[in-house]
Design a protein that fits this description.
Layout (H helix, E strand, L loop, with lengths): L1 H4 L3 H13 L3 E5 L2 H12 L5 E3 L6 H10 L8 E7 L11 H10 L4 E4 L11 H4 L3 E5 L13 E5 L12 H4 L10 H5 L3 H14 L5 H11 L2 H21 L5 E3 L9 H7 L7 E5 L4 H5 L6 E5 L5 H14 L12 H11 L16
Parallel strand pairs: 2-3, 3-4, 4-5
Antiparallel strand pairs: 1-6, 5-6, 7-8, 8-9
Helix pairs in contact: 2-10
The structure holds pyridoxal-5'-phosphate.
Pyridoxal-5'-phosphate (PLP) binds next to helix 3 and helix 4.
């Protein structure tokens, strides 16, 4: 029962994350995969499905593609997206997707890990219903702890569509109590804690919650630095003779540039992808381009640049054959021609986390 009672640091952490994201409650978990699993199995029963995209964090893609299939989930009960998708860094229109989902009486779940705990993006404010978050990366930053969290937006009506009997019908594990009737708009966070956490047990350790609280103290400072350095690195790569292409949503020619400026005014995030290998001959010969993903740290930008310069020299990179024309579409066509066709069988090798 300790899993749902929680030591003191955990509720404080949950409350702060909930406030940062604009939710009504939160449930901290051992990892974000545990959080995703709990949310999705609360929305979908065997025989129902959720809609997502293949442009997902690799671990999530596999959880959905392989593990979730065991539950024979079919018949849509949720939509699942990420704030900034991998590796194109596309930024979905959360407001528009939510409007469509709500028309069909189903909730929208957003993995906001790249949204940095609300610093860059607040999906609940844009219309999404549930946010999940890996705390392991930008929330903690210190690398001492692992964890995830679910934040309940508190505006999804679990009753009118009639699609969620787990919320409206008497709960077996709670003497016939009905979660929607008892907890109203906090039904999801109540059910996650009382049902899933009690029965499955993937809780966050209170010590990790305490460490994540230390991380939150500097979230805004770090968020600013990550975004500034990543944009500077993207621009430096763009001009670098050994770099063939670079994708970052705050580069002017990225297809989502205007949308990103509007929905993420604080910056484009701390991750970019770039390629160094291909010349046209190699691509024609079927050699796939090398995609490198960088999660930019807090070091002084000159040090970051120096590290890359050293690495380029160490691997003996020659000047790349620069792409002519529209860089976004050129980079996309490299993806589409090559290994990005099937993420399941040929996932890119990320650098950093
Ligand atoms: C890292 C990451 C995850 C996995 O997080 P864990 O806490 O390690 O389970 C999921 N989604 C995104 C977008 C990530 O970056």
């Amino acid at each position: 029962m300790g899993t749902c009672i929680r030591a003191w640091a955990t509720p404080v952490f949950e409350q702060r994350m909930s406030m940062l994201e604009g939710g009504v409650g939160a449930v901290a978990t051992a990892s974000v995969h545990a959080a995703q699993f709990m949310v999705i199995t609360n929305c979908c029963s065997p025989g129902q499905n959720f809609v997502s995209t293949s442009w997902l964090y690799g671990g999530t893609y596999n959880q959905f593609r392989v593990y979730m299939k065991k539950f024979n989930i079919d018949n849509t009960r949720a939509v699942y997206i990420e704030t900034i998708s991998n590796p194109k860094h596309s930024v979905p229109d959360i407001a528009a997707i939510s409007a469509v989902a709500h028309k069909h009486g189903i909730p929208v779940i957003v993995d906001n890990t790249f949204g940095m705990g609300g610093y860059l993006s607040r999906p609940l404010v844009l219309g999404a219903d549930i946010v999940t978050h890996s705390c392991t990366k930008r929330i903690g930053r210190h690398g001492t702890s692992m964890g995830g969290i679910v934040i309940d937006g508190g505006h999804f009506d679990w009753s009118t569509s009639g699609k969620f009997p787990g919320f409206t019908e008497p709960a077996d594990g709670y003497h016939g109590m009905r979660f929607w009737e008892t907890y109203g708009y906090k039904a999801l966070s109540a059910k996650l804690r009382m049902d899933s956490m009690r029965d499955l047990g993937p809780c966050m350790s209170p010590f990790n919650a305490w460490l994540f609280l230390q991380g939150l103290e500097t979230l805004a400072l770090r968020g600013k630095r990550h975004c500034e350095s990543t944009l500077a690195l993207a621009e430096w790569f763009e001009a670098h003779p050994s770099v063939n292409w670079v994708l970052y949503p705050r580069l002017r020619w990225h297809s989502h540039y205007e949308h990103v400026k509007e929905v993420m005014p604080n910056g484009g995030g701390g991750v970019l992808t770039f390629g160094v290998l291909p010349d046209e001959e190699k691509i024609k010969g079927g050699v796939t381009p090398d995609l490198i993903r960088v999660s930019v740290g807090l070091e002084d930008f000159e040090d970051i640049k120096h590290d890359f310069e050293q690495a380029f020299v160490a691997v003996g990179l020659k000047p790349a054959v620069k792409l002519n024309g529209d860089p976004f579409n050129q980079a996309m066509s490299l993806f589409n021609d090559g290994f990005m066709k099937d993420l399941g069988t040929a996932a890119p090798k990320p650098v950093g986390n």
